[in-house]
Amino acid sequence: MGNSPRSTVLPSMAALQLLCFFFFSLVPDFAAAITRQYTFNITHKNFTRLCHTRSLVTVNGQFPGPRLVAREGDQVLVKVVNHVAENITIHWHGVRQLTTGWADGPAYVTQCPIQTGQAYTYNFTITGQRGTLLWHAHISWLRSSLYGPIIILPKLNESYPFKKPYKEIPILFGEWFNVDPEAVIAQALQTGAGPNVSDAYTINGLPGPLYNCSAKDTYKLKVKPGKTYLLRLINAALNDELFFSIANHTLTVVEADAVYVKPFEADTLLISPGQTTNVLLKTKPHLPNATFYMFAGPYFSGMGSFDNSTTAGVLVYKHPSSNNHLKKLPTLKPTLPPINATGFVANFTKKFRSLANAKFPANVPQTVDRKFFFTVGLGTNPCPKNTTCQGTNNNTKFAASINNVSFVLPSVALLQSYFLWTVNGVFTSDFPQNPTIPFNYTGTPPNNTMVSNGTKAVVLTFNTSVELVMQGTSIVAAESHPLHLHGFNFFVVGQGFGNYDPNKDPSNFNLVDPMERNTAGVPAGGWIAIRFLADNPGVWFMHCHLDVHTSWGLRMAWIVLDGPQPNQKIPPPPSDLPKC
Questions:
Q1: What CA–CA distances, in Å, run from 180 to 53, 175, 185, 475, 544?
Q2: I need a labelling partner for 39 at 20 to 30 A (CA). Which of 17, 272, 401, 457 fits?
Q3: DSSP class of residue 546?
Q4: Average pLDDT, the chain
Q5: For residue range 249-283, what is the model confidence (pLDDT) as tens digits?
Q6: Which of 187, 310, 240, 190 is closest to 482 using CA atoms?
Q7: Same domain, 481 and 418
Q8: Where is the Plastocyanin-like domain (predicted)?
């Protein structure tokens, strides 16, 4: 007798199990990945630092904000509910956002802000990344208090490419203002002056004992002897690159911007705003007869005022006896480099190299489809008629630009207008590929320092390999600019001082194991060359991560067109996308 219909349709249980095994062995990412859901309630809460009490805009009443923890491959859903009067957006700094540009977060670039009483759910998947990143507000200067760590753990059953640490500790650097930073930048944009500087730097929200009225507000890192700790260092400061050092301890750098690096030792680190650095701290084998300060203080290469102060935390070895023993111990201090130690910074940044091995390759574009040369720096705008300004003189306001275009944020979101083809009057796609008027970029500045103002973007076809040289200028002042590119990691293939030489400098490019990151400093009076593959469709912001320079216009947008495959296209906007 032949098979019954049922037996021909249904395979045996053994066959089903075999089929399942093959399916899940082909798609291990999906099998292990989960969806993680968070709710970020944006609320006001009073905090007191330096004997000044301020109402801060916070996530869930926390300052700094809560940790966002996920594994590589996980889907993340963050519902942001705005309970305050200010407009809000949140950016997931360094997350690749492959085809999820609607979740990237910069106001008026990928979304309109979340208004009072409204909510928006950011929905993205963490693909091919593991390590430390950060989230922060991406509108005006609200990230001064709206920031927190993103901790991406390796996939289940995957290990670090270094010995598993005894404990992992996020350390976030920030800035404290005794007055509302929103008032600070509003006043600066009105007068054209440089903004008032912060009143303190902070470690995990605490200024430390070197500031007035702050001995009780000191971060203490308690450790045991003979252990290895992973410190997840994050610079969430608004306007300052920071040196960091722990007295009598050497740190081993193992990762930056959620990319593993060839490990190297350093007594002092430099971390720019938006950058992260994971370091291994090996504690001393026996209880030392001391406690140890950890200092963070500014690297500043320009002109004008800056917060010239130092935040201190304390590294404390846990003592089995009573706490009275601690009071007798001396506290040793580290020595930070001079404030304008540009040579130290250049040497330090050159130490970063990708692992570039079989498991963690460095996929540097070896050939280039399009080359760009961008000047980045300061400039001026004319003072409005019948007013006095406080820029370089009474008749100017400070400005900043890329290729002399000071970017004006539109009143609607660029991504939405691009997706709906309503671009007329919103932006133009004629951003200059090179400076319109070449000059001696790092020499004596030209007499005319005025910038042009506009909302211009560069359009790239999908999978274009890009080489971009960013050249610092000496207009107003030569200073370091940490440039952040949304939606991509890039490889820093070269850097140098003076004017970039297109005939000589490319021969020294590192195309084997260059550092891969999302934020890199254009040196004061120098240049960096980066390469990236435009494999992520959408509208992607690029800007200086010193917020004062962003506010002055040192920003632009890249538009990457859709690719041919369904997974290479921007999906329609989510139904809860905020409206302008």
A1: 11, 12, 9, 30, 22
A2: 272
A3: S
A4: 94
A5: 999 999 999 999 999 999 999 999 999 999 999 99
A6: 240
A7: yes
A8: 42-155, 168-319, 431-562
**Helix H or strand E segment including 17:** helix 13-26
Q: Alpha-carbon distance 518 to 442, whole Å?
A: 25
Looking at the chain, the whole-number percentage of residues with pLDDT higher than 90 is 91
Shared-domain flag, residues 519 and 404 = yes
- Do 82 and 171 lie in one domain? The reply is no
Question: What is the rounded distance in angstroms from the CA atom of residue 27 to the CA atom of residue 56?
Answer: 45
Same domain for 119 and 180? no
Three-state SS for 103-139 is HCCCECCCECCECCCCEEEEEEECCCCCEEEEEEECC
221 in Cβ contact with 315 (< 8 Å): yes
Instruction: Please report which confidence band the pLDDT of residue 362 belongs to, taking 50, 70 and 90 as the band edges.
Output: very high
What are the start-end ranges of the E strands in 288-414?
291-299, 311-317, 331-332, 370-382, 396-402, 405-407
pLDDT of 77 over the 70 cut: yes
Tell me, yes or no, whether 14 lies in a domain.
no
Q: Is residue 4 part of a domain?
A: no
Burial-class residue 565 by CB neighbours within 10 Å (0-12, 13-18, 19+): exposed
568 φ/ψ angles, rounded to the nearest 5 degrees = -115, 20
The answer for 514, left when phi > 0, alpha when psi is -120 to 50, beta otherwise, is: beta
Please report the pLDDT score of residue 243 as a whole number.
Answer: 98
Tokens of 557: 């947008």
> Terminal CA-to-CA distance of the chain, rounded, Å?
71
pLDDT digits over 34-66, tens only?
999 999 999 999 999 999 999 999 999 999 999
Strand order in the sheet with 251-256: 200-203, 167-176, 228-235, 276-282, 251-256, 259-266
Is the same domain home to 72 and 149?
A: yes
Alpha helices, H only, 27-151: 28-32
| Contact residues for 411 (Cβ-Cβ < 8 A; gap 6+) | 108, 580
Among 158, 185, 209, the domain boundary falls at: 158
Integer angstrom CA distances of residue 543 from 217, 294, 377, 470: 33, 30, 11, 12
Is 489 found in the same domain as 439?
A: yes
How many structural domains compose the chain?
3
Q: Which two tokens stand for residue 508?
A: 């020294």
Q: What would the pLDDT profile of 152-208 be if each residue is shown by its tens digit? A: 999 999 999 999 999 999 999 999 999 999 999 999 999 999 999 999 999 999 999
Tell me which residue range forms the domain holding 233.
Answer: 162-319+330-354
Whether the CB-CB separation of 562 and 569 falls below 8 Å is answered with: yes
**Is the pTM of the predicted complex or chain greater than 0.90?**
yes
Average pLDDT estimate for 99-109:
98
* CATH of residue 249: 2.60.40.420
Does 522 lie in the same domain as 427? yes
pLDDT of residue 22: 42
Q: Answer whether residue 169 is part of any domain.
A: yes
Q: Give the domain-ending residue among 158, 190, 208.
A: 158
Task: Report the percentage of the chain scoring pLDDT > 70.
Answer: 93
Does 76 lie in the same domain as 127?
A: yes
